[in-house]
Amino acid sequence: MLRWIDVIKFAKYSNPEPYRRLEKTDKEWKLKLTPEQYKVARQKETEPPYRNAYCRSYEPGLYACVGCGSHLFNSTEKYHAISGWPSFTQPVTKGAVKYAFDDSFKMSRIEVLCNVCDCHLGHVFPDGPEPGGLRYCINSECLIRLDE
Questions:
Q1: I want to staple 16 with a disulfide (CB 3.0 to 4.6 A). Which of 35, 47, 87, 95 is the partner?
Q2: Does residue 68 have an active-site annotation?
């Protein structure tokens, strides 16, 4: 189970090794993703709160990256955080996501990215439920829900 100290260490020193890598040109990403997906996943924008596909969805399944299909989060780790975006307590595996310091908009945050294709997913915060205490606040535009 990951905790905040693990997230900080990954962001500061070294992220887990991905099980594979996928790299595309900007032109290839624009062809693969919808304009909204591209804005969020590649340009690091944020979708509107509460008006997104998975904010209020709690159906069983796995959530995969829109860019490469890698499994990122399990619905069993999803919870209602009242943040406006889908919230999870843990990624599906330690190496599913990677972390980076993000000081944009005059805020200090930890960005969460797909560890395979570097799609921006959202941010992680240390105010989630125990036992891990993490809240992964993820944009729906970056996710595809797969039925179990």
A1: 95
A2: no
pTM: 0.95
* Residue 106 banded pLDDT, cuts 50, 70, 90: confident
Q: Is there a contact between 93 and 14 (Cβ–Cβ < 8 Å)?
A: no
Residue in 65, 68, 119, 137 annotated catalytic: 137
Q: Which residues contact 113 (CB under 8 A, 6 or more apart)?
A: 97, 98, 99, 100, 119, 120, 121
Q: Which domains does the chain have, with CATH numbers?
A: 4-146 (2.170.150.20)
Q: Concatenated DSSP letters for 36-74?
A: HHHHHHTT---PPSS-STTTT---SSEEEETTT--EEEE
Side-chain half-sphere of 83: how many Cα atoms within 13 Å? 23
- 60-96 pLDDT, tens digit per residue, is 999 999 999 999 999 999 999 989 999 999 999 999 9
Amino acid at 60: P
